[in-house]
Amino acid sequence: MTVAGHTPSDAPPDHGAAPTPRAGLRAGWRRWRRGRPFWGGLLALVAGAEILLIPLAPLDVMIHQGVAGIPSVLMGIVMVVMALAAWFAPLYRTLAGILTTLVAVAALPLSNLGGFLVGTVLGIAGGGMIFAWQPRPAPEAAADPAPPPGTTPHPGSTPA
Question: 3: helix, coil or strand?
């Protein structure tokens, strides 16, 4: 049945409808991800896992390898912990970024060429992204209007 030339299929969408639970989860995930250095943490996590997992082998091989595998495991663990710290405690992003970069560079000579160079490159990029990330200012703080010229900024103050 058509009413005034419109069929139900070409009716305008209802924009006032309640959001689906999936849309709410997606918005929450987006808000969480944007509130921290997510992509730098992801690169650091992948780099740490790569450096950590390459030297891991069965116990017999690890015993024959000796002390050479210990720095790789320790560096991988430190990089994974710093990536998680960047995600879950963004206040410590400066420390996490610097330590991630330093461990990635130290992994080059100490850990199979830094996980065959992949771990070192990803760790340096991730550490740099963690270090450089800045939180967005609140919209209220950013919208501070300047007083018009020739007026005093605060009541009771005298112009300089």
Answer: strand
Say how far apart CA 44 and CA 130 lie, in whole Å: 9
> Any idea what the Cα angle at residue 108 is, between residues 88 and 128, rounded to 5°?
40
pTM of the complete model: 0.69
Please name the residue that has the structure tokens 């900024």.
153
Phi-psi region of 112 (alpha: psi -120 to 50; beta: other; left: phi over 0): left
Q: Which amino acid is at 132?
A: A
9, 26, 30, 61 from 18: Cα distances, Å: 20, 15, 19, 58
Helix (H, G, I), strand (E, B) or coil at 1: coil
> Which of 132, 90, 69 has its CA nearest to residue 124?
132
**Tell me: the pLDDT tens digits for 123-143?**
999 999 999 999 888 777 555
Distance CA 124, CA 105 (A): 7
